[in-house]
Amino acid sequence: MPPLIVILGPTASGKTQLATRLAHRLGGEILSADSRQVYRGMDIGTGKDLDEYQVQGTLIPHHLIDILDAGEKYHVHRFQQDFGAALAAIRARGSTPIVCGGTGLYLDAVLRGHTYTGIPVDDALRQELEKYPTEVLQARFEALPSAYSALADTSTRKRLLRALEIGTYLRQHPEYPAQAKVPRPDALIYGLDPPVALRRQRISRRLHQRLQNGLIEEVQQLLQRGLAPEQLRYYGLEYKWVTDYCTGDLPYAPMIQRLETEIHRFAKRQMTFFRKMERDGLPIRWLDHAQTPEAWLDQIQEDVRYLAPS
Description:
The protein is an alpha/beta fold. It has 12 helices and 10 strands. It is globular and about 55 Å long.
């Protein structure tokens, strides 16, 4: 059975291009691990780069992209289920599954088999918690120690709220199983980590390209289709700041400045999460940026050959 290959890295690191070229070489299919690319109509802001799935005239099969309408809620537990079904189908066809993405929580959930993702949403608790500043929420979470504490991602307010929800549930339901029951696939995990200066340059260049290619128009169309501004702000980054511009809450130049700053911060948080994945026991082979992408492909292909059953 072909191994599961994972290509991860921060935004603008070149994950999609590497993954699609690798899929072309190996006869693979792509499993997206991006929490926003699941939404239809959110193409430019999420960086789907669908043109990169055409490699030398061949369309690379891809999954978990454009599976929901914008405005719907998606969560880690559902991603685990969708991922498992897509992975099984790929393997049934004898193809090589290649995971590509930068949403660390999604990657960690399927690679380490998180069990707490099935804990239900508590809307009443969320409404109560929304009243408090982030520092208060962080202190409240730290006062709820549990087996989940070490796994929690509290890097954003949205994820901190979910962590509090899970911690509260575990306090109220001590019988909840502590051990993961989600299958943990064996995987070859490769990471892209461009030098910080190069990463920042790419992020800035790509942001301005997206603005030129219709990012603002994409957000306007979503608003015209009936999505409320708060629904779009929920998706963060491009959708939050461009929505503020489209609704007249923020002038153009400050919008660009703040968005660029937040994307740089986001990339830093991604790398922090990936390093945590390593500390928690997931081995990541970081590709050497002194080498060419062709050398990376050769390296991965050789690793796959070495691990393939004789």
